[in-house]
Amino acid sequence: MTDLLLKELDVTDFRSIRGRVHAPLDAQVVLVHGENGAGKTSLLSAIELALTGGVQSLRRADPDYASQLMHRSAAQGSVWLTTVGTGAARYGATLSPDGIATSISFDAKLASFFSERSYLPQALLGQLLQIYQDSGSGADSPLAKFVGELLRLDRLDAIESGLKPLGDVRNVRKVVDGWSENELEKTRLDALIKDQKTSLLQIIEDIGVQMSGIKKAADTLGLVLELDDRKLDAIEQALSPTDDEQRLGTITDRRRELGSIRRDLVRVAGAGTSAFPAAEPSSDAYERWAATYLERYSALRSRIEAILPATSLPGDMATFGDAALRHLTLHADQATSRASKAKADVERLAAARSEMEVARSRLRTISGEMDGISTSAGGLASILSEVTAFIDGETCPVCDRDYAELNAGPLVEHVHNKVRRLSASAQRLLELGRTNTQAQALVDRLEREIATLTDAIPDERTLADLDRAAAEANSAGAELAGILDALKEGSRLRAGQVAAQRAVTEAQSRSVALTAARQTLSDFALAVATTPIVDGEDLGVAAERIQSFLDAENRQLEDRLTLRREARSAIATIRSLQSRADRLSDELGQHEATAKIVAEAQQRAQKVRVQGTKIRDAVDAIRSSIIRREFNERLNRLWRDLFVRLAPGEPFIPAFRIPEAETQRIQPRLVTDHRAGGAAGGTPGAMLSAGNLNTAALTLFLSLHLSVPKTLPWLILDDPVQSMDDVHIAHLAALLRTLSKEHRRQIVIAVHDRQLFEYLRLELSPAFPNDSLLTLELARGPHQDTRCLSRRFSFKEETSLLAA
To answer: pTM of the entire structure?
Structure first.
């Protein structure tokens, strides 16, 4: 599975991802960017869940994490991951309030490799050193598993486990019980062995009879054979009818040919001869062209026909090049235009939904204010203004109450103030009505626009396919443009070659030069090894003489083939007898060996026990030597190289230490070595800064990935640049570029800083034709679904400096 690559990921309502997100992953490097909380970690965790059926970092934090994976606003969620290459499959899991339901996932071994060697979640980065530092000494601890996988100790461990019962003699005696039955078993075996020896003698006699028949057949055929029943293959090969069958076939063909010659004798008698016109030589130029370009043209044509399945392309190479280039350009432009329009519609849809939220909020505010104003305020103000003409003094003309009792000023002034307030409320009500109409019109327009955009926007898979189709069309068009002139030259050379061949064929068809009938029959007589035709001999008599000779040869060959078949049948019989003899010999040998084992069981048991104990001691010594040598040198050397590459100015280098004592219980220590040498320092947590401690954990993870065989060619890193300065980041980018371009690792890295995202996009951009880069940008607005916009970068050759 070393060429297995991630292709695409579909996530629906998983953790912080709301709605459905489609993320293409079929590139050598995939950069994921998004603000904090946009869903980067959720996207990478979805990959782990689809492949392994769980999320290891969340399991460490909360054993009951499965019930929290689904988005809070959803009733059901899912993750689906597709891979390409050897062992390609579609992995996935569905989420519900009850937990995780896995569809297809890795087996336990691959799942463990992915979680420990391929995926570094953000939460694990700061805990990685502590996990290995606090690892127990048991066989199931993370460090013990890693040491066994790194040093390939499984066979030594299996030998040691298998030989463990030899330490106690009582365990050995359990396999040799039944001493009281040994004598009866020996008597039975002696009688059986005697009968089997008698049967073997009879089989030997039967084989001798068959060998006599083979000898007679060989003498008749004139074959000198070494008649040994152990060399039946050589005898059968010598008796093979291949030569006689070929000669018989040749005689049959000669007889048929002679019949044709005898029929042609009358038809061609007396015919003259004429010279064949010289054939024009074939075009060497076309052959040289075909050796250089034909295979490349065929592969490119198949690729273009796959890109343009509905387009009928001409068969001629010259016209094919122009037509295919035109269609590829149109296909790429259409795909790019559709993708650009779809992305613009996605952005406009998000903006329209935001505007809709604002407009609806404004409608609610206007409605609340209108509900607080009476609709009859204008009429009441008109009535009160007429009532003021009837006010005389401080007595109300409506209720006859003395307003002076309230000590609130004159009654007339109070009524005038009331009329002014009611008039202002009526005017405000009119303004709110006009504003409400405008806001409702805006909401209606936005609803129509959102519905139109929702219907027009393709799904994310279709959008990714459009980007992929445009990239493939542009790549094929560039390659076609590079050989367009060569295709035109090849078409011209091919036409010349066809014309030359046609001229030669026509010249040959016009040739009427035939050999004279006498010469033809004479040549045939020489071909069949009989007396040639002499001058003056009648052609009919000569033909009859040749016919008699061929008939005699045919009868002789048929008799020889009959003898060969009988001899080969005897060989088959001998083999059957030998098979019976071999079976009896095997059984006889087994019975004799069993009898010997019964007699020597006690001695063998003790001898095996002593040898097994010595082997177990040797295995333990070898295992201890391998662990101390490889673990102290191999892993530490790789870890040191990676750490120094990212932190060239740090004087303390992290490393593992294995005790010099026996290694039955692995108890490593994490220490730091100084560049200048000397005794080992304290743990990395005590000696390194926060940034370099983060670098030590990251390089340890990369060392664990690179120190074992390439089982899964993936490196998935979730925001690994925590506490790193610009120098560390630059060295990390160079290291990731080396792993991607030279070591062919598929890298998926998520970052939240925009400037870092743009820097990594430039540093990890495609550097050769088959290289690729994908960027995924996650965004999510309030009360909106998560959006994932992808952009694909392919290799483009720099041509701006060619003119210089």
So the answer is: 0.51
